[in-house]
Specification:
single chain; 413 residues; alpha+beta; Rossmann fold; ten-stranded mixed sheet; seven-stranded antiparallel sheet; 11 helices; globular; binds S-adenosylmethionine
């Protein structure tokens, strides 16, 4: 009886916080004691919508707080693992001055804990309701010192001095000048940047005339609104159940022909490349490698249940896809044996055999030459910069304010 009542007891918020911190530590997301202390102290559930259970508030997952008329999330409390990564790599110290773009309150409270009473935290959000909610929740949770500003974050926020860190918590396709202009020379800019449809949370620091990334992590964030709004092109292949995202001006496709291609036979190929639990995270670099090729490319997102039997991509949110105007080939990953998975490809349309063959060749090249290297160098330059010619494989992502370069290490044969 006593045992039964113990196992069914609802978890307290404090217990749930400790469990979350243990989880984030054991998975390697938290390494710094001050970040662990912040996650232990801030009551995440007070920032969640009314009615959110303690279990959901402290699951290692995103909590959606607001949706647009189309049902898509426009605001959320980001997943703890991602917040831990951002706060850790921002290198915050007591007394630091930090600007957050995109509010909610919880992340700002974590930052406030780390920078302490001598630090400064300002959070900017474009949505007045988010601002009001964040202000109220911060007050309730005991962080009245955090200032929440209602404005478009592309302008940053001018205050008494430069920022030691700018943390952007909304997907950006470009870096507006204010974010770097307002950053202290040794400051860090942590930003989820979309590059050819692949969003990576980059930790950037100044390297003379450009910024260089010291960390890059695959992630998804709600889309930027306001002046920085720049959604990628969407090609629905089966309504919203299978959508191809095109994020460059050079990839031209015939949406009708691609939709029709899915009615035809599926070409299936397998590579010799395998992954296991210990190196599964290298797949992020394969995605960028495939995106780096000078050829038509898109990112496929599917509803697995609703497209079962038709599509089975390696990743349901961000699957790399090679294209012609009427054919496509996406990456697959199937169980090989009890511990490993095998990479392959599925193709549709008249060029499916060629595209799947190319996909496998590129996957093998990545495995043999680039996989062990820990991913490419990512640098961000002012728009219009002429970078020196290089023999190295490089993807350039030109945007209005910046030119991002994804450069693959030299290989020795
Ligand atoms: C993922 S939420 C922020 C999460 C939050 N930092 C937390 O504590 O977890 C993204 C926020 O960015 C906001 N946003 C979108 N575009 C913006 C812009 N141009 N300037 C400022 N905020 C923006 C949205 O209104 C939304 O509240």
């Amino acid at each position: 009886m006593a045992l039964g009542s113990r196992t069914t007891k609802t978890m307290t918020a404090a217990d749930a916080r400790l469990r979350l911190v243990d989880q984030l530590r054991s998975q390697g997301w938290i390494t710094r004691p001050e970040v662990a202390a912040a996650f232990t102290a801030v009551p995440r559930h007070l920032f969640a919508p009314t009615g959110t259970s303690i279990e959901s508030a402290y699951a290692n997952d995103v909590v959606v707080t607001r949706r647009g008329s189309d049902g898509k999330a426009t605001s959320s409390i980001s997943a703890p693992w991602l917040q831990a990564h951002m706060v850790e790599t921002a290198g915050l110290t007591p007394g630091a001055r930090v600007l957050e773009i995109g509010s909610g309150g919880y992340n700002a409270a974590l930052i406030a804990e780390v920078v302490g009473p001598t630090g400064t935290v300002v959070s900017v959000d474009i949505d007045a309701q988010v601002v009001t909610h964040a202000q109220q929740a911060l007050e309730r949770a005991g962080y009245p010192q955090v200032e929440v500003v209602h404005a478009d974050g592309v302008h940053g926020h001018l205050a008494d001095g430069l920022w030691d860190a700018v943390l952007v918590t909304v997907e950006a396709s470009d870096l507006p000048p204010a974010w770097t202009d307002q950053l202290a020379p040794a400051g860090r800019l942590v930003v989820p940047l979309r590059m050819r449809g692949n969003t990576r949370c980059l930790t950037l620091h100044s390297a003379g005339d450009h910024l260089a990334a010291t960390a890059s992590l695959q992630c998804g964030f709600v889309a930027m609104q306001g002046h920085g709004r720049n959604p990628a092109r969407r090609v629905p292949l089966r309504g919203d159940d299978a959508v191809l995202t095109l994020d460059d001006d050079t990839t031209a496709t015939n949406a009708e022909a691609l939709r029709a291609a899915l009615d035809g036979p599926r070409v299936e190929v397998a590579s010799t490349v395998t992954l296991d639990e210990t190196n599964m995270d290298t797949i992020e670099s394969l995605h960028l490698w495939l995106a780096s090729q000078p050829r038509p490319y898109g990112v496929l997102r599917v509803d697995r249940d609703r497209t079962a039997g038709l599509l089975n991509p390696q990743d349901r949110f961000f699957c790399p896809t090679l294209l012609t105007s009427d054919s496509l080939a996406y990456l697959t990953m199937d169980r090989h044996d009890t511990t490993t998975w095998q990479l392959g490809g599925h193709g549709f349309g008249p060029y499916a055999p060629k595209l799947t063959g190319d996909l496998m060749e590129l996957t093998v090249a990545w495995d043999q030459q680039y996989r062990a290297g820990g991913g490419p160098d990512i640098t961000v330059h002012p728009a219009g910069t002429r970078l020196p010619d290089t023999e190295r494989m490089r993807l350039l992502v030109p945007r209005r304010h910046t030119l991002t370069a994804i450069t693959w290490p030299e290989t020795h044969h």
